[in-house]
Amino acid sequence: MDDRLALRARSRRETAQGTPAPPRRLARGLAWGTAALAATVLASLLFGAGEVGPGRALAVLAGVGDDDARFAVLQLRVPRTVVAVAVGTALGVAGAVLQTAARNPLAEPGLLGVSAGASFAVVLVIASGAGAAALGPWVAVLGAGAGCLLALGAARLRGTGDDPVRLVLAGAALSALLGAATSIVLLLDQRTADEVRFWTVGSVAGRDLGTLSQVGPVLAAGLAIALLAARPLSALALGDTVAQGLGHRPARARGLAMAAVALLVGGSVAAAGPIAFVGLVVPFLARALVGPDLRRVLAVAVLLGPAVVLAADVASRLLVRPYEMPLGVVTALIGAPVLVAVVRSTRMPSL
Amino acid sequence: MTAAAARPAPPRPAAPPAPPGTWRLAHRDRSLLVDRRAATAAAVLAVLVAATVAVGLALGTASVPLNRTLPAAFGVGEARDVLLVQQLRLPRIAAGLAVGAALGVSGVLLQTLARNRLATPDTVGLNDGATAFATASVVAVSTSITPSAFALVGSATAAALALGLAGGAGRRGYRFLVVGLGVGAALGAVTQLMLARAPIDEANQAFPWSVGSLNSRSATSVTVLAVGLAVALPVAVVLGRRLRLLRLADAVVTGLGSRVARVRLAVIGTAVVTAGLAVATAGPLGLVALLAPEIARKAAGPRVVPVVGAALAGALVVLLADLLGRTVAAPLELPAGLVTAVVGGPYLLWLLLTTRTRRMP
C-alpha cells in the first residue's frame, strides 16, 4: 500500500471533471515541454544582441557561414545556452521540491532568501581574503543551505499549511536583510566589489564551459537527491500522519529535500548568480499541465526550467539592443504576474 | 425689550467627566478628548527627536562642541562652525526629519488600512513605484518635470495596481501584501531595465534612488516634500480619529455613521502622497515605515492610531540611521537606507516568525 491509492482516487476525480487521465496529461505535458525547450534552444542560438542575425547564425548551424558568425554562435552562444539549460533545470527542480516540502505554492528559492544566502556567503568569503577564481561552488552551496534552513525552519515554526503568504513575506524580509548586508560589505571593500559584481546580479552571459565543469557535479548530485526524495515528498502532500502511515519518514524526506535545494540553488548561484522567480514560474506551469503530483511535476519541470530561462535570456538580449540586461530582471518581469496570479486564484492550493 | 432677551441663558448642562486615561480640552461648546498616554508618548518622542537633531548637528567628520552648535545653527559663532552646522548639516537634517515623518505617517496609514502591520510602503510596492518613475524622470525623458512629480505618479500607480489586482485591501490584507510584493518586483525590474539602457552619466544621476540616502537630495524635492507634509500631516491627524473605526468590521463602521469608502480613499491618498514625496527626496529608505509605527504604537498604547507619534518616530529612526551611517565607518559613509534595512530586517523577521495571533494595529 502506498500513495498509489490516493493517486488513483485523484485520477478518477479528474477524469470525472473532464480533464484527461494522468498518463495522457503527462504525455501532453512532456510533449509541450519538449517543444518549448527545442524552440528556445534554437532561438538562443539564432538571436543575439550583436550583428550576427538569425540568417547568418542559421548558416553556421548548417555548416557554412562566415568566421564572425561562426565565432559568435559556437564560442559565445553555445556555452551560454548550455549554462542556461543547466541553471534552468536546477532552479525549476529546486522550486518544485521546495514548494512540496514547504507545502506552499509560493515557496521559491529566490523569494525565500535561499539565493540571497548563497550570494551573501560568496561575498563574505571573498571579503575575508579568498580569490574569486579559486572559489569552488561549495561556499555558495553552504550559503544556500543556511538560507534553506531558515526558510523551512520558518515554515515549521509557523506550522505547515498555516498561511502560505506569511512565509513569502518572511523570505522577502530575509532577502532584503541579506541584500543590505551584502551592499555594506561591498561598500566597505572595493576589491570585493570588483570581483563579486558577477554574483550579485544574475546573468548567463559570458559564462564558459569551465564554470560548468566545476558546478556540474554539484547540480547532478542535487538532481539525484531530488529524484530520490520525490516519492516520499509526494506522500507528504497528504499530511505527515498519512505519510507516516504509508511507511515514509517525514523528517528524513524534508532533510533530503533541503539538501537537494541547497545543492541545486547553490550550484546555480555559483554558475550564474541569483535568478529569482524561475522556481515559482516553472512548477506553476508544470502543475497546470500535469497536476499536483511531484513526480510528474519534476518530469515536466526538467524540460520547462531550461525553456523558461532560455526564453528570458533571449528576451534579455533583444529588449535593449545593442546592450544586454541582467537575466534576473527579465525573470522578475515574467515572474511577478505569475505571483499575482497564484495569490489571486480564489482557493490557494495547499500542497 | 422682549422677555426672551431678558431671560438669562439656560444653564449649560455640566460636561460629563472625561473618560479615564484622557484629558478633555474644552473651548465654549466644543471639546476634544486627548488620550493621556498618547500625548505623553508624543511629547517624549519630540524631546528625543530634538536631542537627536542637536547631536546630529554637532557630530560628523569634524565635530563641533554641543554648546557652540545651537548658536551656529542660527549663524552666530566662528565661521567654521557656521559653515559646518548651518550650511552643511542643517539642510541634511531637515531633509531627514521631513523624510522620516512622511514615511512614518505613510506606514501607519497603510497598516491601519490593510489591518495588517506588515503593510508598509516598502512591502506593497509604493516605494518601488516611486523609484521607477523617479528614475524614468532622469533617464528616460529629458523634460524639466521634477522627480517629485514623477515619484508621486509612480507611488499612485503602484497603489492602484496592488489594490486593483488584489481586489481591495481585504480583511486580513495578506493577499494585498503579496500582490504588492509582485507589483514591487516588477517595477523594480523596470528600474533596472531603464538603468541598463541609460548612458552611464544619467544612470549615475539616478543611482541615489536605488539605495536610500540623505546624501544626494535635491533642494527642490525637499521643499516639495515640506509643502506636501504641511498638507498631509493635518489631514492624517484628522483621519486618525476615523482610522480607529476602520479597525472594526465594515458593517459596524457604516452603522456608526462613517462612510468607509470615503475614509479609505482619503487614507490611501495621503499614504501615496507622503511615500512618493519621501522617496523622491531620499530614495527608498528600507523599513522605516515599518519600524516607526511600531515604536509609536508601543509608546502610545492600543487605544489610538498614533499618527503624530509615528511621524516623530519616523524622523527619529531616519536621523539616527543617518547619524550612524555618517559616523560608524567614517570617513566612508554608509547610506542611511542600508543602516535601516540591516537594523529593521531582523526585527521584521522576528515579528513574522513569533507572533501567532495577529493583533491588528
Describe the structure.
The complex is a heterodimer of chains A (351) and B (361). Chain A is 76% helix and 0% strand. Mean pLDDT of chain A is 80; it is low at 11-16. Chain A has helices at residues 4-17, 22-46, 54-61, 67-102, 114-127, 138-158, 164-188, 190-200, 209-236, 240-245, 250-272, 278-290, 294-318, 327-344. Chain A has one domain: Orthogonal Bundle (ABC transporter involved in vitamin B12 uptake, BtuC). Chain A is mainly α. Chain A is globular. Chain A has 14 helices and no strands. By secondary structure, chain B is mainly alpha-helical. Chain B has one domain (36-354): Orthogonal Bundle (ABC transporter involved in vitamin B12 uptake, BtuC), CATH 1.10.3470. Chain B is built from 14 helices and 2 strands; from the N terminus they run H-E-E-H-H-H-H-H-H-H-H-H-H-H-H-H. Chain B has helices at 3-6, 36-58, 66-73, 79-114, 126-139, 147-166, 174-197, 200-206, 219-246, 250-255, 260-282, 288-300, 307-327, 336-354, and strands at residues 22-27, 30-35. A two-stranded antiparallel sheet of chain B has the order 1-2. In chain B, strand 1 and strand 2 (30-35) form a beta hairpin. Chain B starts with a helix and ends in a 7-residue tail after the last helix. Classes of the chains: A mainly alpha (351), B mainly alpha (361). The A-B interface holds A 106, 154, 157-158, 163, 165-166, 168-170, 172-174, 176-177, 179-181, 183-184, 187-188, 276-277, 319-320, 323-326, 329-330, 332-333, 335-337, 339-340, 343-344 and B 118, 123, 165-167, 174-175, 177-179, 181-183, 185-186, 188-190, 192-193, 196-197, 211, 286-287, 329, 332, 334, 337-338, 341-342, 345-346, 348-349, 352-353.
